Amino acid sequence: MHSFWPLLLVALLYPASGQPRTNVDRLFEGGKTWPQFLAGVSAQRDLWTKTESAVTVPPDVIERAKRASRGLQLLVVSEDWCPDSAYSVPYVARLAQSAGIPLRVLDRTAGESLMAAHRTSDGRTVTPTIVLARNGRDVGAWVERPAELQQMFFSMSTNPENAKRFSQRHLWYESDGGVTVLKEVLALIEQTNERN
Fold first, then answer.
1. Does 167 map to a domain?
2. Average pLDDT in the 157-170 region?
């Protein structure tokens, strides 16, 4: 009976491939697919479905992502109440789907370790956190919102105009149409492909 437990532990840590399972692998296996996540959205459902229905990904962006997708998986930490998630994640999900990149969505609780590993520059753990994993290793992340909006956020206390603009960030997201999110995530996909 006692010899069973070590064998079970080995089977859990070393799947059929003979390689050890990583935390990223376990999180990916426990995550929801994009359709599962979207079907379960209740907070801001109209915003999520509006964004999802408006998503387009240019063919050249899809092709570039395909060329750089070897061994790539995306783990998205997201909550349906988060407006930055609602305006960003549908674009990343469509890019992943179109380029054949496996993607899973985790809630904050399941994705806490990923958020902690990829904090904002002021130390917060936030959604969305979009982690790029290659061959079971965490190789980088896109965190919270596009750089331009993040700069607005950080300058709100000293720049009243940016505070006003940030309070209406939905207008920025809607006019941008996901272009900046796709550009920034694609840049990370290509950079992490070159490093591996």
1. no
2. 81
- H or E stretch at 130: strand 129-134
Q: Classify 25 as helix, strand or coil.
A: helix
Residue 190 pairs in a beta bridge with none
Strand partners, 130: 76, 142
Of all helices (H) and strands (E), which one includes residue 75?
strand 72-77
Mean pLDDT to the nearest integer, 110-138: 92
Return the H-helix or E-strand segment holding 133: strand 129-134
The Cα–Cα gap between 131 and 115 comes to 9
CB-based contact 133:73 (threshold 8 Å):
yes
Q: How many domains does the chain have?
A: 1
Q: Which residues pair with 103 in a beta bridge?
A: 74
Instruction: Measure the CA–CA gap between 50 and 87, rounded to whole angstroms.
Output: 9
CA distances 10 to 17, 19, 153, Å, are 12, 11, 47
pTM higher than the cut 0.70: yes
16-26 core/surface letters (b: 16 or more CB in 10 A; e: else) = eeeeeeeebbe
Tell me the residue range of the domain where 47 lies: 18-144+177-195
Say if residues 21 and 14 touch (Cβ distance below 8 Å): yes
